[in-house]
Amino acid sequence: MVPENIQTFPSTSLTLGAGARTTPLDDLESAVAMYQPRVFRFLLAQLRDRDAAETLTQETFLRAWTARAAFREDCSVSTWLIRIALNLARDHTRTGRFRFWKHIAANAVDVADVAASVPNREGSAEAQLIAQEQVKRIWESVAGLSARQRTIFLLRFLEEMDIPEIAAVTGLPLGTVKSHLYRALNVIRTRHHPQSQEGL
Amino acid sequence: MTPELVLQPDTTARRPMGEGHLTEEQFGELLSASARGPAANSSLAEAHLQSCEQCAAELASLRECLLLFREASTAFADNELRRMPQVTLPARRPMFLPVVEPGYWVLAAAAIFLAALLPMQVLRQHTVQPASAVAASTSSATAESDEALLEDVNREESASVPAPMQTLADPTDSVASTSADIETSIQTSDQRKD
Predict the structure, then answer these.
(1) How many CB atoms lie within 10 A of CB B31?
(2) Which of A120, A173, B92, B183 is 20 to 30 Å from B113 by CA-CA measure?
(3) Which residue would you say has higher pLDDT here, B33 or B37?
């Protein structure tokens, strides 16, 4: 029997004290349904490892739920979750906690699989192949970026965050974010249009 | 791995528009702004795009590529996500209500009991040892006294006349000697008076 002043967590047996402030993350099921695709997508593109992305996505939500009392709503839930995910990804690559996974080819994302996911726009087969090749090239170019450039590039062009939002997530000044973004774009531009540098 | 370009922002990024094409910074601004409308300060770059087909084509191509990249990545991630198990919280209890499973209570009680019993057992072993020594010494002393008692009994039994049957000493001997002593002392005292 649950006392009246104790609120039962909907998806688990965990309980919140009566004085606890309600946050958007109290309902974990709803938060996961809403934000999991975004968090997982970012981590998958950042780490290029299925298992690591899956593990860190779960870890992101667990950490967010555990620390939900610290969420002051000075940014969106999505931004907060991406910030947690980014920190976890940094720790992951820094400590090499799951280093052995890197050697398991089955877990690594195959660029060809990503390229094959290009939506068919009712174009010709040739156009589809060209599109796949372009996607493949960008994925490979992104892999060659520095960690910071890659993060900022993905936040901008995969998660469609604006510059101030990226600055909030990464904790970098606006100018630094822009600088890294432009350099990342230049790398991709060079790879995409080798003649672009020649024209300048 | 694609080698990162060595950029020269002082010479390329700030190059005046009229000299060539869009700079790296202008391209970055235009591409960054593409998803959510045109950039605020891109009027100069936009004007250049009107007159430069090469830059316009390159920008359009890059925008298209970035869009494809996003769509493909999203579709791929969504596909992968369907195979991923649902995020669930581990079944753990809150810190302010520490209820432990009954089995753990039994284990904890047994551990505490053993922890308390062990020092007691050690202490008992230390205290029992002197007691047994005392008991041993006491028993040896008792045995000695018993032997002495038995020897006395044997001695008395082996005697020809039992002690109770021994002839009594003549009490008059002592009385006579006593009266003689008294007379002697009286005489001595008389002599002293003289």
Answers:
(1) 21
(2) B92
(3) B33
Task: Answer yes or no: are the C-beta atoms of A31 and A61 closer than 8 Å.
Answer: yes
What residue type is A4 in one-letter code?
E
Give the containing element (helix H, strand E) for A35. helix A28-47
Answer whether B55's CB lies under 8 Å from B48's CB. yes
pLDDT, greater one: A142 or B147: A142
* Interface test mutation site (partner B, options A27, A51, A59, A135, max chain B beta carbons within 10 A): A135
Once rounded to an integer, what is the mean pLDDT over residues A82-104? Answer: 76
Q: Quick one: CA dihedral A90, A91, A94, A96, positive or negative?
A: negative
Sign of CA dihedral A127, A129, A132, A137: negative
Measure CB to CB from residue B7 to each of A41, A146, A183 and give the nearest one. Answer: A183
Among residues A71, A66, A73, A80, the alpha carbon closest in space to that of A161 is found at: A80
d(CA B87, CA B108): 33
B6 falls in which pLDDT band (50, 70, 90)?
very low
Which residues lie across from A15 on neighbouring strands? A8
Question: Which residues have a Cβ under 8 Å from the Cβ of A164 and sit 6 or more positions away?
Answer: A174
Mean pLDDT, residues B30-39: 64
Q: Which of B35, B36, B33 is nearest to B45 (CA)?
A: B33
| In the block, residue with structure tokens 């089995």 | B103
Nearest to A139 by CA among A112, A178, A99: A112
Give the residue-averaged pLDDT of A168-193: 90
Beta bridge partners of A7: A16
Cβ of residue B31 closer than 8 Å to a chain A Cβ: yes
Question: For the whole model, what pTM was predicted?
Answer: 0.61
> Where does chain B have alpha helices with state H?
24-34, 43-51, 53-83, 102-158, 171-193
Report chain B residues whose CB lies below 8 A from the CB of A145: 4
Cα–Cα distance, A159 to A153 (Å, whole number):
9
Q: List, as one string, the DSSP characters of B126-146.
A: HHHHHHHHHHHHHHHHHHHHH
